[in-house]
């Protein structure tokens, strides 16, 4: 069980004062209060596209830290036995990591750089799993020096590497699962088939390495909860192989893949499958299968997008427009160019297979955003037209939407917003063509209870000051 949440240390901030910071993070960023709409309106009030300095009208994110807090509370409600180790690669924003650290999560790091970032925020190495089965030798040596002593493997050569450079490291064998029901499939690159596990464990025993458990990953963005049942069945088989090899596993890592839209259904499958394949008689404290860990079987997971997907929204500025563009007589009537694209936050279109939908922030420089609007969020009565949306670089591949519908009145200088942009966006944004990735404006949200809770958690941990 994670540590309880502290009560608020001060009266909660007023959400109406969206342009007034309620605190500052240790890294220097201001934190505000108020909704996404309030933050966008306040931020745009400080930007004059006709007079600002170069890059003054750059695209920017608004991040609601209270939404991350709510996701964490949801996780504790649905999967109280499973400690989340946040997948840093999904969104490595320092404020996200600071908040999750204060909430008591662990961290799934895939590289030396991610490890150094987490450690640099004062987080203990004991809260890190180096969850990359194929690591550079220099990274393994650095992990030893930094006290990182839990990592995954799925091949014989990795065992030889660990023996040479970090022989006391605790190892977790990553097995192959069926990831065909996920948006991003990882099994083509990682995971040992069950038929290979006995040989891997035999080699680990010969090298006198300590294998402590099993991990798997059903793929990023899993849309079939049943995939977890199949994976847990395979994991139990791997546990049995470990016992046959003379090991007493006490760690199960069920990986990531958790989607916000079907999380409740996934959690139900996971709970039921754990009862079926890892019953208390074997794996609870005192169970016959877990003898060396007083708390019984330790279960962790590696959620990423679950925490941040809907906590970030992105505002982009229309920097150019071409009118009258028709591709086939029925295609887009205009081309809009915005100041962030596929080489920036919208790399998610390529690498994460996301589908984005723009809403209108401003028309004729007037704020018109309607977060609850089902379509583009246009004011009533606005004439719409077919158009395409493009990024700012000189690459013709930099296309956001080849065809969509937006108000005909949308003009150069106006703003669009893209919701649910927290996962696998900022993490892979580049400076191609010399363009700066979007900055982030943080808020505690408009819900007073959530804002108060986050304010208290961050303040108590020393991550937020006045």
Overview of the molecule:
With 466 residues, the chain is of the alpha/beta class. The chain has 13 helices and 23 strands. The protein has helices at residues 36-45, 65-78, 94-103, 112-120, 137-146, 156-165, 197-206, 226-244, 263-277, 280-283, 305-308, 348-351, 448-460; strands at 23-25, 30-32, 60-64, 82-87, 106-109, 128-130, 150-153, 170-174, 182-184, 210-215, 220-222, 251-253, 298-301, 312-323, 334-338, 358-360, 362-363, 366-367, 384-390, 399-407, 415-418, 439-443, 464-465. The strands form four sheets. Strands 1, 2, 3, 14, 15, 16, 19, 20, 21, 22 and 23 form an eleven-stranded mixed sheet that branches. The longest helix has 19 residues, at 226-244. 47% of the residues are buried.
